[in-house]
Specification:
about 180 residues; alpha/beta; Rossmann fold; 2 domains; five-stranded mixed beta sheet; 5 strands; globular
């Protein structure tokens, strides 16, 4: 029986180290991590790998529920997939586990709260953007990746994978940038 940790942050500029340290301190022999949005399961290859790896009696450990997902259905589907493999899910903060029946109820409620938080956040963000637009202060989302640097690395012969690793983004983002600038 293995304790397998999963850590996630939403963007490349966020730090995973706190989650990784906590999971290791909790006795996770294997810890997988990724930098990708938790809004859906799309693009979360490390999570899929962890779930595929789970065996009877194993335990998937995350620091907080929102590291698994922000959508109630996604969280419940992940828990269900783990259970089908005979594995358990444990959230460290607050401490909840699917080892007991009450854990399922608590995870469902927490999943609904996480989804509600996400909706509220999006509403507040939309309201803030509308106010900024009305005040003629809104400039749109800032590009996080230096597109010229990506093109320069590609022209120097770097592979898409090496560019993605160097600038901490996905290969798909690099392909999109190269395609946009006509350098694919």
């Amino acid at each position: 029986m293995a304790r397998i940790g999963y850590a996630r942050v939403s963007t490349g500029d966020q730090d995973l180290e706190g989650q990784l340290q906590r999971l290791r301190a909790e006795g996770c022999e294997i810890v997988r991590s990724e930098k990708v949005s938790g809004a859906s399961r799309d693009g979360r290859a490390e999570l899929s790998t962890v779930i595929d790896f789970l065996r009877l009696g194993d335990e998937l450990v995350v620091t907080r529920l929102d590291r698994l997902g922000r959508d109630t259905r996604d969280v419940l589907n992940i828990v269900h997939e783990c259970q089908e493999r005979g594995a358990f899910v444990t959230i460290l903060d607050p401490h909840v586990s699917t080892r007991g029946e009450m854990g399922h109820v608590i995870l469902t409620v927490l999943g609904m709260v996480a989804q509600m938080e996400r909706r509220f956040l999006k509403e507040r963000q939309k309201e803030g953007i509308e106010r900024a637009k009305a005040a003629k202060l809104y400039k749109g989302g800032q590009k996080r990746i230096n597109r010229k640097f990506v093109a320069e690395l590609k022209s120097r012969g770097h592979t898409v994978s090496s560019i993605a690793e160097r600038i901490s983004c996905s290969r798909m983002q690099v392909y999109r940038i190269l395609n946009d600038i006509g350098n694919a």
